[in-house]
Amino acid sequence: MGAIINWIVGFDADNDVVQSLKSSANKSRKVVGRGTLVVDTDEVRRSTKFKDDARKAADIVRLSKSKG
Length: 68
Prior knowledge:
With 68 residues, this protein is mainly alpha-helical. The protein has one domain. Helices cover 60% and strands 10% of the residues. It has four helices and two strands, in the order ααββαα. Strands 1-2 form a two-stranded antiparallel ribbon. The N and C termini lie far apart (57 Å).
């Protein structure tokens, strides 16, 4: 029955977004509405993944400025 309801409402447990949320290291996340997720920003900024992504973004900006 649950699979039918999930199919009707469009929920896919194998969806990349769902899998990403399940494996997320952020423990402060909570659902506050349909499709609305709230996460503690301090926790996100302290995460290794965010720091790595921020460093990569800074490198991209720096390279684009040097070529421009």
